[in-house]
Write a structure and sequence with these properties.
- The structure holds two protein chains of two kinds.
- Chain A is mainly beta.
- Chain A has a domain of 97 residues.
- Chain A has two helices and 14 strands, in the order αβββαβββββββββββ.
- In chain A, strands 1, 2, 3, 4, 5, 6, 7, 8, 9, 10, 11, 12, 13 and 14 form a 14-stranded mixed sheet that branches.
- In chain A, strand 4 and strand 5 form a beta hairpin.
- Chain B is mostly helical.
- Helix content of chain B is 74%, strand content 4%.
- Chain B contains eight helices and one strand; from the N terminus they run H-H-H-H-E-H-H-H-H.
- In chain B, helix 7 packs antiparallel against helix 8.
- At the A-B interface, strand 1, strand 6 and strand 8 of A face strand 1, helix 7 and helix 8 of B.
- Strand 1 of chain A pairs antiparallel with strand 1 of chain B.
């Protein structure tokens, strides 16, 4: 009994010491949040363009006729004065130029200013009309877009991208920012540099150009054409035997599924083909992979 | 009817007419008036007025006398014109005052409406600032740089011992890729903040480090 008590006491003591150790790596910071909002009139043909940095962007469509926005600037620092001073360095401008409504946030430093020490972030919450074209340029942060049925252009670096229920012309260029999407339909073009791509429930015409990325596509339906050009990448397709396959694989591992019957190779053709003779009506999946792995489920 | 009426008329017409002097008539009238007045006066009730009334009578008489003594003066055209102008000016002043009163009310109303409008707009657009406290885990971005020098030293040592291998196109391409990854890593580390949640950035850094490791291993295997 005594031994058990001693063991428990030792365990509690150890837990306390560890907790204190962990607590030493924490600090209390002052969080200052500046919020402002507004509304811009919208007519057919007007598009919204966001240029942001260190921004978390949430944009979705709604059945209204105006562009509504709420912007928050957040600064975190152990000293309140430093947080306040750094928050003032965050600037935001918006306006209309021709048929473009633009919004931009940036950090303004005068020649004497030091780089902000606070953790600075901008949070955009935007609602746009369903048919409003949208362009987002972001540098560090997160982008979340949903329910857009128009043209969507995203160019980002070091920012994760989440797309949900988008239809129309979709163009995404991402560097070191993973891209995930569900319910995507239309003309989809993705250029990825070290950005993993994870899509499900996709349809339409899809073009992917990737470098050093993991590409996973599932629930592919109503496909017009799928082109993937990749290097040093992993490609996983969950699409079964309902397509014609054109495989240009170089220094790439490919484990052919049992149901896949390759067409007889033609002269001067290096790419492997499947279903081109048996099912000429099937949509084409064209894979060009240099160094990596390719898997069909 | 009288006999010889005609003769009598002729005789009368020949008579001299005599018009008395005006004084005679005046005298007659005054006598008559005097007689009537005397008769009326005899019937009048006599009243003795109070003393203060007797006192006012000389004052009033003096006043009337002085008024009669005032010289009558006919002003010239210039003065009449000035009077005209001052009357006009007065009328104008009154008109301006009326206009000013009405416009000042309108201006006050306009200012009130504009102020209200701008207040509402300002309230709508004015930023709302909130303060709070948060406990965060601090991080040391410097920890991510600790291996870079080591990798550089290894590569320098390898190239010193085997310079030909380091001149090959494959080696140069891989070192170029390594340099690119170092650039991206530096960009991320510049945005890494001790007081923020950096999970996504740390995942990116991990990927970069893994890729760099692979490249370094390939470089080493090419040379050795």
């Amino acid at each position: 009994m005594k031994k058990a008590i001693h063991k428990k006491s030792f365990a509690y003591l150890l837990l306390t010491i560890v907790s204190i150790g962990l607590a030493c790596a924490q600090t209390t910071v002052h969080v200052i949040t500046k919020t402002f909002d507004g509304e811009e009139a919208w007519t057919e043909g007007v598009r919204l363009e966001l240029n942001s940095e260190n921004a978390e962007i949430h944009c979705e469509a709604y059945p209204g006729k105006t562009i509504r926005y709420e912007v928050q600037f957040i600064a975190k620092h152990p000293e309140k004065e430093s947080a306040e001073a750094d928050l003032k360095k965050m600037k935001w401008i918006s306006g209309k130029q021709g048929k473009t409504v633009f919004m931009r946030n940036y950090i303004e430093l005068s020649p004497d200013d030091l780089r902000p020490e606070s953790n600075l972030k901008a949070v955009y919450r935007i609602k746009i009309p369903i048919a409003c074209p949208l362009t987002i340029n972001n540098y560090f942060g997160e982008i979340s877009v949903k329910n857009i049925h128009s043209t969507l252009i995203i160019k980002s670096e070091f920012a994760t991208i989440a797309l949900n229920n988008i239809s129309g012309n979709i163009e995404v260029v991402s560097k070191l920012g993973d891209i995930s999407g569900t319910a995507l339909n239309g003309n989809i073009e993705i250029i990825s540099n070290r950005s993993n791509i994870d899509f499900s429930d996709i349809s339409g015409s899809i073009d992917i150009d990737a470098s050093v990325a993991k590409i996973a596509l599932e629930q592919i339906h109503d496909l017009i054409r799928l082109n993937i050009t990749a290097k040093k990448s992993e490609i996983i397709l969950a699409c079964g035997n309902h397509y014609r396959y054109l495989l240009g694989l170089e220094k790439a591992d490919f484990e052919k599924p049992d149901w896949m019957k390759m067409d007889a190779p033609q002269k001067n053709e290096t790419a492997q083909k499947s279903n081109f003779l048996a099912h000429p009506e099937y949509p084409v999946i064209d894979i060009k992979l240099t160094v990596g792995t390719f898997q069909i489920k | 009817m009288e006999k010889n009426c005609k003769i009598l008329d002729e005789a009368l017409q020949q008579l001299r007419s005599y018009v008395p002097d005006g004084k005679v008539w005046d005298a007659l009238q005054s006598q008559l008036a005097e007689a009537a007045m005397a008769h009326g006066l005899s019937k009048l009730k006599s009243i003795d007025p109070p003393q203060h009334l007797w006192n006012t009578i000389p004052n009033e008489l003096d006043k009337q006398e002085k008024i009669h003594q005032i010289k009558a003066f006919t002003p010239g055209d210039e003065i009449w014109n000035r009077i005209d102008e001052s009357l006009d000016a007065d009328a104008k002043k009154r008109l301006f005052a009326r206009i000013f009163r009405r416009t000042s009310w309108a201006a006050a109303a306009a200012i009130l409406i504009l102020t209200g409008y701008f207040l509402i707009i300002q309230t709508k657009q004015a930023p709302n600032i909130a303060y709070s406290l948060e406990i965060v885990e601090t991080e040391n971005p410097g920890l991510w740089r600790s291996d870079d020098n080591e990798i550089r030293d290894v590569l320098t040592e390898i190239c010193t011992s085997n310079p030909l291998a380091c001149e090959s196109p494959g080696f140069k391409e891989k070192t170029k890729e390594l340099a690119y990854l170092d650039e991206q890593k530096t960009e991320i580390l510049n945005n890494l903040n001790a007081y923020g949640q950096n999970k996504h950035l740390e995942v990116m850094l991990t990927k970069i480090e893994l890729e760099k490791n692979e490249i370094v291993k390939q470089l080493i295997s090419e040379i050795l």
